[in-house]
Amino acid sequence: MSGYVYIRSEPFLWTVGYYSPDGKWHSESDHASAEEAATQVRYLNGGTEDDVRLLQANLAEALERIAELERSTPQAQQARYEADLAAADLAASGLGQDPPIGADRHGRGCRCPYCPDEEDYLDSDIADLMPVAEEMDRRW
Length: 140
Prior knowledge:
alpha+beta; 3-stranded antiparallel sheet; 4 helices; 14% strand
C-alpha cells in the first residue's frame, strides 16, 4: 500500500484514501476542507497530533509573514497612497455629500457652477410670462 493522500472529490468535499498497487482508489474518510483532509493524511501516515499542531502553527506564522510582506511592498504602499489621494479629492469635491436641502439639480436652487443664480431665474420667469400677461391685458 502506498501512503495516504487526499483528493478533491466534489466541489466542497475532500476525500482521504490511498491507491493500491494496481491503481485502484480506496477511500478512508471525507472532509469539508482541504486542511481537515491534510490533518487526517498526516495522522494516517504516522504523524502525531503534536506534529500536526507544530506544522499548523508554522503554516499560520508563514502565512502571517507573507501577508505582512505583501502589505509592505512598494506597489501596495503606492496603491494605499493613491487610494488616500482619491478619497481626499472626493471629499474636497463635495460629490460624495448630499445636495443642500431644496437644491434641485439644474433647477431652482441648484448651486452647481453651470446653473444661473436665483435672481436670474426670477428675471427669466418674468420675461417668459410677459407675453402671456400682454395677451391677457388685450383680452380684458
